[in-house]
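Section 5.1 Outputs to date
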Amino acid sequence: MARFRTWVGTALAAALCVSLAACSSTGGKRAEDARKAAAAQGRAAVNTPRWTFAMITHSGDGDTFWDIVQSGAEQAARKDNITFLYSHDDEAQQQAQLVDAAVDKKVDGIIVTLAKPDALKAAVARAEKAGIPVITVNSGSERSKAFGALTHIGQDETVAGEAVGEELNERGKKKALCVLHEQGNVGHEQRCDGVAKTFRGTLRKVYVNGTNMPDVQSAVEAKLQADRSVDSVVTLGAPYADAAVKARKDAGSKAEIDTFDLNAKVAASLRDGTLGFAVDQQPYLQGYQAVDLLWLYKYNGDVLGGGKPVLTGPQIVTKAQASALAAYTERGTR
């Protein structure tokens, strides 16, 4: 009888344990499904306060890269119950004024790029003095910590450039042009310098006016016409790859066109062989993670990176990988 009672007790305990586990599993799944459904319908998946975050970038008008960054940030903001404010200016002093304006609005968090860090230093300091947490994104990883930002999200531009140099070596390239479309942008210089560090061939920098596509095309065309031995052109942004392709055609050159950054046009050009390879730094992830990490800091005091940048790239994308990413690039998230 004692053994029977022990067995029954054990059986009941086991049954209760299974039942509770099932309830917990079901409850957790239901909660997760509810969160996903809310996010999919554009509703917040959390019940935290309606904080306001501002993102201020150095983007010029019409740059598809920053459309992708903004898209990721907006998606995270909807999920996190955040009012999201986006502004941009490719003039550093104007960008700094936009940061000052966000501080004056008493936003709850700021996301900012540091393409020209010295011009942004005072504005970022003012934000932090006002008690507004700051995350830097995309540009300025080497200055982010010194400026007091919580973390930096993006790719290491020098490492990305080094990856390009190594890829050019594997392709047997001997002479390359690195096309810089924004003078004074420290990240662009780091990219080209990184290429030069690992590329065993000859690399020349070409400075162009990135706000004027005909100027970009004519500058690259002139270089290709002047030196027929150039066998590779590296552009530092997806929109400029197309201008380089046109320059190659008009110059009668056979140089391979490669580019930093990915969008739908670049993915299609990789698939049909118009471009050789692209360097993806996952801009959607940069925007999404920046908002998410600010929310986590406000909600739970969380910080990622351990004092180091949170890297989103680089990833070399060739014709072989482009097809797999096509659906994402066409919807504007890669």
